[in-house]
């Protein structure tokens, strides 16, 4: 009996968007309008690449970025939830599927000593170049028309489950915890014994509600959360059953 917990990162584990939080490092803590307006829907990673060039051009170094990123607040109750998962790790496999990047997530989790809670992190690969600029790549290529071009979370989840299955690992239930529009695609893949946990008031909850109103509800159970304590309460019930 093992459960798979799938977490989004921005606005789920942390209470902000890590990609916009880094702007606190920029001169006057803001980006020029031309750069800000250069974002095109579905091409967030390319946009962030330009942001990182701007920060590098303005002399923002790795240590300054790291100091800024590790001040990002965790979502209410999340520290307790991750502590609870750590104490019960034998029952939970835990992964992150996020449109952030490896550098930010690694910094934030290690600073709070939560990196060992997660078995794998699937996100856009990032690294510092020899000139000290942060660079970011698309996570993968995919054919899903519903998702941004750098990341289809459903594809990530399907491939992870296939690999686990090949190693003889199967899950009693998948619990998917997220907030954004790009979390809908993997939620649509979940089965009736699984559970989607959208954050209250965010895009994922609204999209799931809209599907129910359109009489094409998602196939799994849905439990809305506002504090990660709500998630912890559910997990406590789960492991008692």
Automatic annotation (TrEMBL):
It comes from the Eukaryota. The keyword Translocase does not apply. InterPro entries: HAD-like_sf, HAD_hydro_PyrdxlP_Pase-like, HAD_sf, Pase_PHOSPHO-typ. The active site is at residues 8, 10. Pfam families: Put_Phosphatase (PF06888). GO terms for molecular function: metal ion binding; phosphatase activity. Keywords: Hydrolase, Magnesium, Metal-binding. Signal peptide: none annotated. Its cofactor is Mg(2+). Substrate binds at residues 19, 99. Mg(2+) binds at residues 8, 10, 179. The keyword Protein biosynthesis does not apply. Belongs to the HAD-like hydrolase superfamily. PHOSPHO family. This is PHOP2 phosphatase. It comes from Zapornia atra (Henderson crake).
């Amino acid at each position: 009996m093992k459960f798979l917990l799938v977490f989004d990162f921005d606005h789920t584990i942390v209470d902000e968007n890590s990609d916009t939080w880094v702007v606190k490092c920029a001169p006057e803590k803001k980006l020029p309008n031309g750069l800000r307006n250069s974002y095109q829907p579905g091409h967030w990673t390319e946009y962030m690449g330009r942001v990182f060039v701007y920060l590098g051009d303005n002399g923002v170094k790795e240590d300054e970025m790291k100091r800024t990123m590790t001040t990002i607040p965790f979502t209410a109750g999340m520290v307790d939830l991750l502590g609870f998962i750590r104490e019960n790790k034998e029952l939970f496999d835990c992964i992150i599927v996020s449109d952030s990047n490896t550098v930010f997530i690694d910094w934030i989790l290690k600073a709070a000593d939560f990196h060992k809670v997660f078995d794998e992190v699937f996100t856009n690969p990032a690294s510092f170049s020899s000139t000290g600029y942060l660079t970011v790549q698309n996570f993968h290529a995919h054919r899903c028309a519903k998702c941004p071009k750098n990341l289809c979370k459903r594809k990530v989840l399907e491939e992870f489950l296939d690999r686990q299955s090949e190693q003889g690992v199967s899950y009693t239930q998948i619990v998917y915890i997220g907030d954004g529009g790009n979390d809908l695609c993997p939620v649509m893949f979940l089965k009736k014994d699984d559970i989607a946990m959208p954050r209250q008031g965010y895009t994922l909850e609204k999209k799931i509600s809209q599907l129910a109103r359109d009489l094409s509800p998602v196939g799994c159970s849905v439990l809305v959360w506002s504090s990660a304590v709500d998630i912890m309460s559910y997990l406590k019930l789960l492991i008692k059953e």
